[in-house]
Amino acid sequence: MDVAAIEPGKDFRKAIDESVASCTVLLAMIGQEWLSTRDATGNRRLEDTHDFVRLELASALRRDIPVVPVLVRGAKMPLVEHLPDDLKDLAYRNAVELTHARWKSDVQVLVHALRPWMEDAGAAADPARREAAAEPTRTLPLGTASTLPPEAIAQISRALAVSIGPIADVVVRRMAQRTKTVPELCECVAREIPTDADRLKFLRTCRSAGLS
Fold it and tell me: What is the pTM of this model?
């Protein structure tokens, strides 16, 4: 909340703009009523040029700061024609969805999406890290550092996708880097499945394929 962050007498528009200017990345949390929420006078808040949320988003978009829409509680991305002119670019930003059913997996996807920006910001602020960032990277791409058979990883990804969708590939490849055997990978991945029935179904699929 900004209630204590802006000093008395200071122009809150400038304060918000200055604060947003220091952002590495801005998350726009969007719920089901984000577009339709109205103020005390009955006007849509997004139409209010002095609304704090609109000011923050408009400032970030104007500065070309990465803005990640985070969809919660089943919300959908707003269409460009439903947004005021200074927010229309938001409709073209790739979104991340957070759901109750796939919370752990969804959060991992969000963290994975944010990590490059945060690491770049840390390197820019630290001379030693700037030098390290300038050196050729020795880190293998996601998935290639695992010693597990690629075909087994692919099979487990397909089995997991039945329960949590296309993000299964990211989840499995990341866990494959931290596990030593295919059965261990199956067990770790199963913990990401929210319901007991789907978890048992996944493990049966792994067993029938000779993976566990």
Answer: 0.54
